[in-house]
Amino acid sequence: xxxxxxxxxxxxxxxxxxxxxxxxxxxxxxxxxxxxxxxxxxxxxxxxxxxxxxxxxxxxxxxxxxxxxxxxxxxxxxxxxxxxxxxxxxxxxxxxxxxxxxxxxxxxxxxxxxxxxxxxxxxxxxxxxxxxxxxxxxxxxxxxxxxxxxxxxxxxxxxxxxxxxxxxxxxxxxxxxxxxxxxxxxxxxxxxxxxxxxxxxxxxx
Length: 205
Known about the structure:
Elements: E1 3-8, E2 24-25, E3 28-29, H1 30-38, E4 45-49, H2 52-61, E5 67-70, H3 78-88, E6 93-98, H4 106-116, E7 121-125, E8 135-139, H5 140-152, H6 158-163, E9 168-172, H7 173-176, H8 192-204
Parallel strand pairs: 1-4, 1-6, 4-5, 7-9
Antiparallel strand pairs: 2-3, 6-8, 7-8
Helix pairs in contact: 3-5
């Protein structure tokens, strides 16, 4: 099993007001919900943060077997986190996701990994064509090159990186809905209100 998980936790949580990944949900940090969900499918877990101070906080909060790395470039875009993660990852395939999706579906993770064999990426896509590049599996080496090329060209969004990859498979969220009927896997926490909603979702589950 040659797979890595890369969790991006370096965002500047403006709407949230504090470090999102370390905020508590049901007595454990948000980032830990994500890591626990993906754990059975990978043999390496990497958390990417944006500063040394943040790295110290995450190392204190997480198991020592989890690698915490700091962004290798100073640009405010998830692409830098992705580049840092892909560079660090040893797995042939990497699941790239953000630290604020506490309800990651194990069935969805399993399917995306399976579908990525022989592809450079598998990316969920909504019926309105909106994609979920931070809830996707990538073939690590080509993804690293594509991310580097996008950043070198000053193209700072995830779409630019995906456009530079050949052999990308898109999976409709309608397919994923058969595994995760409410698509909770994509529920992300941007505001304190979302965190309250998540608390409710957990207590009703």
